[in-house]
Amino acid sequence: VQLVQSGAELRNPGASVKVSCKASGYTFTSLYIEWVRQAPGQGLEWMGRIDPEDGDTVYAQNFQGRVTFTADTSTSTAYVELISLRSEDTAMYYCTYAHEYWGQGTQVTVSS
Q1: Cβ atoms of 9 and 92 closer than 8 Å
Q2: Dihedral in degrees, nearest 10, Cα atoms 37, 75, 83, 15
Q3: 21-75, pLDDT tens digit by residue?
Q4: Which end of the chain is more exposed for a tag (fewer CB within 10 A), N or C?
């Protein structure tokens, strides 16, 4: 199993960012893909999950309205998009499968 994420992103406040997570080595639709983030000096924060089989999503309350999960079964790739970015969104973003397999992380930096 391998999860490979897209590269680091730098955005201005108010902009949006979309991070990808390409899965391989298992059946992409077999289980949720979850997204978590870790801000500098802080613990892991769960953002939510998507079921790639039917696109069903669950969002953590802190992110509702600002985050969207999608999944492309043709490429076995999951995406997280975060809008209206603010400095507090600066963090390493991770996708995970079954909390056993993790992407390498994508650094998102929000700064003017």
Answers
A1: no
A2: 100
A3: 999 998 998 999 999 999 999 999 999 999 999 999 999 999 989 999 999 999 9
A4: C
